[in-house]
Amino acid sequence: MSNIKDSLLKFTRGVSKTSGELVKNTKLSFALSSEEEKLRQVYLDIGKKVHEIYQYGGSLGKFFDEKYTEIQQIESAIAELRHQIDTIKGVKSCPECGDGIQRGASFCPKCGYQVHDSKSGRKEKPLPTVEQPTVEQPIKEQPIPEQPLEEQPPMKNSIACRHCSSENEPSSRFCLTCGRML
Fold first, then answer.
1. How many Å apart are CA 31 and CA 77, to the nearest integer?
2. pLDDT for position 117
3. Which residues are paired to 83 by β-bridges?
4. Domain regions of the chain by residue span
């Protein structure tokens, strides 16, 4: 009876944590949409003003300096909100292409870039995208990660890498584990 009670308590805590993250993610997504809408409105204001100025033969000046500053502030807010959403979702951004990457991935599924190695503190270049080794750049075999595959959550409609057999999202162009082209 004690085991059932403990299991139920753990389940309830998990649901509470997940619900809290969902609420926080929803709030951040709403704030992100709001900031993006503000940015679209500033762009519209600029377009209207430019049209009016040119329509009446005027010149550009202070208005555009203020709007440019406003755009920079909104873009900073958008970047921060995206970072917070990525943190909640457990993803990080690729430093090369900006696409979202799972936290445990070693390579970007979109561009193949080897992401920042937190242990050594260095960034690596992407592996060559050619299938066969060239004389100038031989492709070295990448070690398979120590983490067992069963600890990774199963993906729906996934693609298995032909080099390391790890599961990848259907939209991935490069393997998350070994960085090879899929």
1. 9
2. 52
3. none
4. 2-89, 92-130+156-182
Question: How far, rounded to the nearest angstrom, does the alpha carbon of residue 77 sit from its chain's CA centroid?
Answer: 16
Whether this prediction's pTM lies above 0.85 is answered by: no
Rounded Cα distance between 89 and 169, Å, is 16
Tell the residue number behind the tokens 């999202």, with chain if given. 169
Q: How far apart are CA 38 and CA 75, in angstroms?
A: 10
**Secondary structure, 3-state, the chain:** CHHHHHHHHHHHHHHHHHHHHHHHHHHHHHHHHHHHHHHHHHHHHHHHHHHHHHHCCCCCCHHHHHHHHHHHHHHHHHHHHHHHHHHHHCEEECCCCCCEEECCCCECCCCCCECCECCCCECCCCCCCCCCCCCCCCCCCCCCCCCCHHHCCCCCCCEECCCCCCEECCCCCECCCCCCEC
Establish how many alpha carbons lie within 13 A of residue 164's alpha carbon, considering only the half-sphere containing its beta carbon. 21
118-149: per-residue pLDDT in tens? 544 444 444 444 444 444 444 455 555 554 44
Ranges 38-52, 53-67, 88-102: which has the least confidence: 53-67
